[in-house]
Design brief:
Blueprint: H1 4-33, H2 40-71, H3 78-108, H4 113-116, H5 119-175, H6 177-195, H7 197-216, E1 223-224, H8 225-243, E2 247-251, E3 261-262, H9 266-277, E4 286-293, E5 296-302, H10 316-325, E6 333-336, E7 340-346, H11 360-402, H12 410-428, H13 430-447
Parallel strand pairs: 2-4
Antiparallel strand pairs: 1-3, 4-5, 5-7, 6-7
Helix pairs in contact: 1-2, 2-3, 3-5, 5-11, 6-7, 7-8, 8-9, 11-12, 12-13
């Protein structure tokens, strides 16, 4: 495997090779169209000048780009990177243009310094500066697009991993319920067969209804509170058959329970947990109450704690806590004193989570779409900027050649430049931050 130094050297040699080929291409073009004398000496001179310009611009801009990559990330520090790139690229290429042109015209071709700073060579310097900025802008935009694409792919990969892991964990938690519930129910049925066969038969009919509900809700993340209460009532009837007057379960229902949601089988697990950990007798019955308290559904029972036979807690409360944690940031609350035990589970509304939108695949798609939209915005901006750098120099040349006394090129340059600035602010600066802040503000109001 190559080390980072070896990779850096390989990249440098590859870039150097590309620059030399560009220099060869430029030398041929200049030799054919601009050199009056067509001989070997003239071509070699043109090739050396082309190498000087190509390597000078290419290597210096490459070093600048490497330095900027070290200081600013295109992804994490986009705004700072864009500002630093614009300022440094403009200053560097202006300095390089004057240095290379001075070397070419004054030192090599023996043009006087006064002529070099005349109007003729000022236009030449200006043309080279714009050409250099055009090429470097295109290269920086290309690198930025590559970085954004790689980041988008990485984000989607991470989202897929997280979503797959969360989905597998959620399914694992749900699949714990079937054998757990069936095992406990069969134990109850086994005890009833010996004690009271008639009640055992009634219990079997009720158990079939309960287990049908378990199967129906197996693939759902959420059910309405009313559905869960209706199911809990059937389960409570089974417990009454088993424990007779030793258990009293009270339901305080509300009309809006049809529009509020909780995790399926959570009530059954909590009731089972209360019965498992508390003794119940006709003289000291276990009293359980289910009611709404604010944004929670509270299940309270009088505390008549059994002696613990072992340290195993089962899957009841832990299972519910983990499943709710995947659907809402609200925590399950536990309250306990010497006389009572209360568990409060958060009520979930569609404003908090939409059952159909909870799918990990949808989360994955959302992350991809968000990344794709961002790439599209940036692509549009850099396309606009590159077009500006291409068209405006052409208009300037046309203006100077056709009507040198009237410089009308300033109007499209300034008008389009203002549009570029506005586009940059929208993509990188004030506009985007304002939108995000406003969205957060409205979301906070909805929560209140």
């Amino acid at each position: 495997m190559k080390t980072s130094e070896q990779l850096t050297m390989c990249n440098f040699l590859q870039q150097l090779k590309v620059l030399i080929w560009i220099a060869f291409g430029c030398s041929i073009l200049f030799f054919v169209f601009t050199t009056p004398e067509k001989n070997i000496e003239s071509y070699l001179f043109t090739l050396l000048i082309s190498l000087m310009y190509t390597l000078g611009y290419g290597l210096c801009n490459g070093l600048l780009n490497r330095f900027l990559n070290y200081r600013y990330s295109w992804i994490e520090d986009t705004k700072a990177r864009v500002i630093a790139t614009i300022i440094s690229v403009v200053l560097l290429n202006i300095a390089l243009t004057y240095l290379l042109n001075f070397t070419n015209f004054v030192l090599i071709q023996k043009v006087s310094i006064d002529d070099f700073f005349s109007e003729k060579y000022n236009f030449t310097n200006w043309f080279f500066i714009n050409l250099a900025l055009l090429v470097t802008t295109f290269l920086h935009a290309k690198e930025f697009m590559i970085a954004m694409k790689q980041n988008a792919i990485a984000q989607v990969t991470v989202q897929k991993t997280i979503a797959t892991s969360a989905n597998a964990q959620f399914e694992s938690l749900k699949n714990q319920l079937d054998p757990h519930f069936l095992f406990n129910s069969l134990n109850v049925l086994d005890a009833l067969i010996d004690e009271n066969p008639q009640l055992a038969q009634e219990f079997t009919h009720g158990l079939s209804k309960v287990y049908r509900y378990v199967l129906e809700q197996k693939n759902k993340e959420l059910v309405t509170i009313q559905q869960e209460i209706d199911f809990a009532k059937i389960y409570a009837e089974l417990m009454k058959i088993r424990f007779e007057e030793s258990i009293e379960i009270t339901f305080e229902e509300k009309t809006d329970f049809e529009k509020l949601y909780i995790v399926p089988l959570s009530l059954q697990l909590i009731l089972e947990n209360a019965i498992k950990h508390n003794f119940a007798t006709p003289t000291k019955p276990l009293m359980i109450t289910i009611r709404q308290e604010g944004n929670y559904l509270a299940i309270e029972n009088n505390l008549q704690q059994r002696e613990k036979l072992d340290n195993r807690e089962g899957i009841g409360i832990s299972n519910i806590q983990q499943r709710f944690a995947m659907l809402t940031p609200e925590k399950i609350l536990l309250e306990k004193d010497e006389r009572k035990f209360k568990i409060k589970i958060p009520i979930i509304t569609k404003n908090i989570v939409n059952m159909n939108d909870f799918s990990p695949n949808n989360n994955d798609n959302f992350a991809y779409e968000k990344a794709a939209r961002r790439v599209k915005e940036l692509k549009g901006f850099y396309g606009n900027l590159i077009s500006y750098c291409v068209v405006i120099p052409v208009l300037v040349v046309v203006n100077i050649l056709t009507s040198p006394k009237y410089h009308w090129f300033w109007w499209p340059m300034l008008g389009w430049g203002i549009g570029i600035l506005s586009h940059a602010l929208q993509v990188f600066g004030i506009g985007k931050n304002w939108e995000e802040k406003k969205i957060k503000e409205l979301m906070e109001k909805d929560k209140k």
